[in-house]
Recover the amino acids of this structure.
């Protein structure tokens, strides 16, 4: 039996960012959102561990009220319970880590905290480690593979210079990569069932975190301007290839990069 | 009060010291270095005169390979001993985990992937790319202590010779650490020019039909004296290469980048932003990559690359 706490983020779809054409500011309200890609794999991994060893999967999401959409998906995939901590304010990762740590202490015990290695939108990749630091738990980051045996978790981490095989006693924090699995696609009956399941809401006061203070303020977020020349040459007609390649070589010589 | 510098590659200390100098000018204090692992400690002479007042070294055997919990415990004690307020590290996956743990231990702010750092009215401001590198965010630090992970290449390395640092050797206490490293398999580095150091990079994406076709990239890269690389799906899903070009893999900054058969996902395009000139070759005239290119060729890479190789060879042979 293994009790797993999974974290999911209601993330921006970065491929569809809404950008103010004048100021280049990002319009968050108009940008579509989804469950984080790595978060979904963390949930999938939790469900697989539960299927193998028995147990329970609890999912926690900190985000706006609309994030309950992804919690429906979480239920459809097979989670046992889902919690939303609704907040509209910007929270830095430290605040989110404190919320997870408090939730863990109040709603535990859990054997494992599973998270995505990094969020799909802000991609800092530090939340798991911050939670582990607050709870004094071991962490295995960016895992490509997880095995649970004899009350120990073994996982392979893909880091900058190679692969690290770690082993940690439970409870532990593990964060996963995109490569760890292919998440299941819920069936229609699962989606219908999910609609009847209750999304639990907790406030920061419920977690005794009324005085939560951010350590970082995001003061300005602006899209980069793409200032490329965008000179396009058409070589779809094979007889043009010779000419187009000559042109390209000339351009590159003018640029001084050949 | 002091400022601590830690890098997971010895060459990066001389860049980080220039970030440290910004903080020192604004807030005062000494800049200390912490060096972990036998191999790094052996190379310590290379960073002895870059402006660090002290270098604290840990060369215990257990520290030769990365263990985030053990490294964090090791650094934590040193931070307390030297009253460290700011920690600067190079931005890497390993350091994200290490700094995540440390920031919780120290109750400090943490900003990763910093590409700009300055102090205004006594407030520390950092800028970093967000949303798959499509945007940049300015962040104001609102805490007494902070850890900042600086992207490599943002600060120029210190070249002036400064007063020699005092060396303090330390031992570790490993009894408390619960995380065990069972095995480390280093990344296989292919021979040839390294992606992040190359002047010319040729990249391949899903427009390549099979692994053998990578020889097209290799040949083009070799005639240009550059490196070749692939996108994430080719490396992570197909296993055609050990690493990929993109924000989650290797960020590149060559003079010339040639993207072949690459559609241009944000994940990839944000990793190539540092390139001086970008060329894209793709069949699909609607591919997003053309918006990130200075020169785009719409056409079949299987015909265009061989032609390009042929003509470059002619030029070379004069």
């Amino acid at each position: 039996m293994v009790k797993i706490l999974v974290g999911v983020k209601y993330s921006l779809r970065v491929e569809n960012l809404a950008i103010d054409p004048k100021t280049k500011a990002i319009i968050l309200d108009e940008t579509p959102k989804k469950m984080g890609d790595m978060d979904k794999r963390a949930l999938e991994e939790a469900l697989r561990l539960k299927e193998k060893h028995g147990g329970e999967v609890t999912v926690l999401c900190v985000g706006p009220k609309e994030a309950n959409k992804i919690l429906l998906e979480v239920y459809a995939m097979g989670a046992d319970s889902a919690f939303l901590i609704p907040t509209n304010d910007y929270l830095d990762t430290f605040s989110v880590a404190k919320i997870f740590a408090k939730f863990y202490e109040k709603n535990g015990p859990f054997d494992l905290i599973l998270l995505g290695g990094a969020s799909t939108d802000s991609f800092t990749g530090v939340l798991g480690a911050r939670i582990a630091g607050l709870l004094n738990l071991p962490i295995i980051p960016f895992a490509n593979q997880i095995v649970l045996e004899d009350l120990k978790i073994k996982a392979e981490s893909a880091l900058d210079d190679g692969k690290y095989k770690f082993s940690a006693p439970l409870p532990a924090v593990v964060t996963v990569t995109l490569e760890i699995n292919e998440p299941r696609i819920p069936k229609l009956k699962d989606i219908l069932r999910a609609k009847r399941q209750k999304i639990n809401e907790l406030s920061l006061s419920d977690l005794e975190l009324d005085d939560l203070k951010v350590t970082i303020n995001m003061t300005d977020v602006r899209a980069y301007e793409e200032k490329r020349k965008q000179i396009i040459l058409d070589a779809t007609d094979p007889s043009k290839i010779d000419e187009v390649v000559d042109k390209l070589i000339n351009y590159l010589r003018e640029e001084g990069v050949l | 009060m002091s400022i601590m510098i830690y890098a997971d590659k010895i060459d990066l200390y001389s860049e980080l010291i220039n970030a440290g100098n910004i903080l020192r000018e604004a807030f005062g204090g000494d800049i200390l270095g912490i060096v972990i692992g036998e191999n790094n400690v052996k190379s310590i002479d290379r960073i002895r005169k870059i402006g660090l007042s002290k270098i604290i070294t840990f060369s215990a055997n257990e520290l030769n390979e990365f263990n985030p919990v053990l490294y964090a415990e090791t650094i934590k004690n040193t931070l307390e001993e030297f009253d460290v307020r700011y920690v600067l590290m190079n931005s890497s996956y390993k350091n994200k985990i290490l700094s995540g743990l440390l920031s919780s231990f120290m109750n400090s702010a943490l900003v990763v992937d910093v590409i700009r750092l300055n102090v205004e009215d006594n407030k520390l401001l950092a800028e970093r790319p967000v949303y798959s590198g499509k945007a940049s965010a300015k962040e104001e630090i609102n805490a007494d202590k902070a850890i900042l992970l600086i992207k490599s290449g943002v600060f120029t390395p210190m070249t002036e010779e400064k007063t020699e640092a005092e060396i303090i050797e330390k031992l570790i206490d490993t009894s408390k650490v619960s995380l065990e490293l069972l095995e480390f398999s280093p990344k296989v580095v292919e021979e040839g020019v390294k992606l992040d150091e190359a002047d010319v990079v040729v990249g391949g994406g899903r427009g390549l039909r099979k692994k053998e076709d990578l020889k097209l990239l290799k040949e083009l890269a070799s005639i240009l004296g550059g490196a070749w690389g692939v996108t994430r799906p080719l490396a992570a899903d197909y296993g055609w290469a050990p690493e990929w070009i993109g924000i989650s893999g290797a960020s590149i900054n060559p003079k010339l980048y040639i993207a072949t058969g690459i559609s241009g996902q944000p994940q990839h395009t944000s990793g190539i932003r540092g390139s001086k000139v970008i060329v894209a070759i793709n069949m699909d005239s609607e591919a997003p990559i053309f918006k990130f290119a200075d020169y785009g060729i719409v056409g079949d890479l299987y015909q265009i690359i061989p032609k390009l190789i042929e003509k470059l060879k002619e030029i070379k042979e004069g």
Chain B has a mean pLDDT of 93. Helices of chain B lie at 13-27, 38-42, 68-81, 93-106, 214-223, 232-237, 266-269, 301-317. Residues 2-170 of chain B form a domain with the Rossmann fold fold (CATH 3.40.50.620).
